[in-house]
Automatic annotation (TrEMBL):
<keyword id="KW-0479">Metal-binding</keyword>
<keyword id="KW-0808">Transferase</keyword>
<dbReference type="GO" id="GO:0046872">
    <property type="term" value="F:metal ion binding"/>
</dbReference>
<protein>
    <submittedName>
        <fullName>Sulfatase-like hydrolase/transferase</fullName>
    </submittedName>
</protein>
<feature type="domain" description="Sulfatase N-terminal">
    <location>
        <begin position="5"/>
        <end position="344"/>
    </location>
</feature>
<keyword id="KW-0378">Hydrolase</keyword>
<keyword id="KW-0732">Signal</keyword>
<dbReference type="GO" id="GO:0004065">
    <property type="term" value="F:arylsulfatase activity"/>
</dbReference>
<dbReference type="GO" id="GO:0016740">
    <property type="term" value="F:transferase activity"/>
</dbReference>
<dbReference type="InterPro" id="IPR017850">
    <property type="entry name" value="Alkaline_phosphatase_core_sf"/>
</dbReference>
<dbReference type="Pfam" id="PF00884">
    <property type="entry name" value="Sulfatase"/>
</dbReference>
<dbReference type="InterPro" id="IPR050738">
    <property type="entry name" value="Sulfatase"/>
</dbReference>
<comment type="similarity">
    <text>Belongs to the sulfatase family.</text>
</comment>
<keyword id="KW-0106">Calcium</keyword>
<dbReference type="InterPro" id="IPR024607">
    <property type="entry name" value="Sulfatase_CS"/>
</dbReference>
<dbReference type="InterPro" id="IPR000917">
    <property type="entry name" value="Sulfatase_N"/>
</dbReference>
Amino acid sequence: MTVQPNVLFIIADDHRYDAIGAAGDRVVKTPILDAIARTGTMMNSTHIIGGVDGAVCVPCRACIHTGTHIFQATESQTIDDHDRTCVIRAGANTMPSWFRSHGYYTHAVGKWHNDRTSFSDGFCSGNALFFGGMSDHREVPVFDYGSNGFSPPNEPRVEKQFSTELFTDAAINFLEQYSEEDPFFLYLAYTSPHDPRTAPEPYASMYNPKDIPLPPSFMEEHPFDNGELDVRDEHLADYPRRQEEIKSHIADYYAMITHMDYHIGRVLQSLADSGKLENTIVVYTADHGLAVGRHGLLGKQNVYDHSIRVPWLIQGPGIPAGRRIDQLAYQFDIFPTLCEMAGVSAPDGIAGQSVADLIRGETKQGRETVYALYKDIQRMVKDERWKMILYRRSELTGQGSDRMQLFDLKNDPWEIRNLASSTELNPQIERLQGELRTWMNRTGDPYADCFL
């Protein structure tokens, strides 16, 4: 009889896909994540699909949990319908509920950021649970969860321990105490490296801003109104962007990542000490990326690669070591991929596709294109070389611009040179417009007619 593997699912908040040593960043220190990449596989081109809320993390997490695109994942994707855009659609099978129904003991630690009903349906228990979007990392409002429901039942208690350490200790406590025969599904959700980026020492002083190189796509201002230049994230630094200030932001961002990396190592060591590491699938990902000065932006309310691409590292039984896969994938492909690797059939009717064959090297075929959206103002489609972004002025806010960008990612991975006016590339534009139309119709994008 084959023993089903355990699952350790680790998700960060705001961790850009390339802010990892193994992904090519020569400044940030991530020895633990680098080790996962060496002993497992790195999905190097994993994308979010986006959403219609400035808090992009909410729809992204719903997509991860449900294994499908945003217009199937939540009760509402109407702009500014904040009470319902965080609610996972009734009847949707979530990753924890699905694994729970297939014999797994499901436990959660850290940030959920969706509704309580979907949480209760999915998890057997949980500790240090944070249901908000952000908080001071040293004043974290949390709940516990068990057979008697949430504790405290209504208002959370406030923990003074730094969030990354708080969540790590809770995860280790679960691993040390879990003694059941059923395999476990442990969901560990950090709020790091989300601002306020206030890593404790010695991490806070680890990166000297003067030594931080600016990205090639650094700009003092975004070259046009993208429709969302006044959102909270974009006020974390002054306009126009100053090089010294952006370098300080990057230094603080890296400090948070390195601090989190160390504590992920503590969790993996606890898993090894329990004797369960060899039979555990470990996943590391993030809800979305972050600009941190690229293209004159600070936040994630855009569809450049720095904001829509996320890390996806996976190691465990049957997963090749040292593989780097560049084929296109979606964040919501993680759910069905884990199902296949755990010997569990995936739910019917989801948009996610298992890439287990791709990871095992049994096929080289990934997705041909992916698309992403933000509110009613930005739409993106790309293949492995070409990327098109369409912008429009919002009828709701009056902000935004009717623009097109076309990037040759092979020769311009930083998305700096807009080739949309090059007439010889009209065939590429027409092809990508067709792909975008197909994606918007397939997902039921309510703004499809506004863009094409």
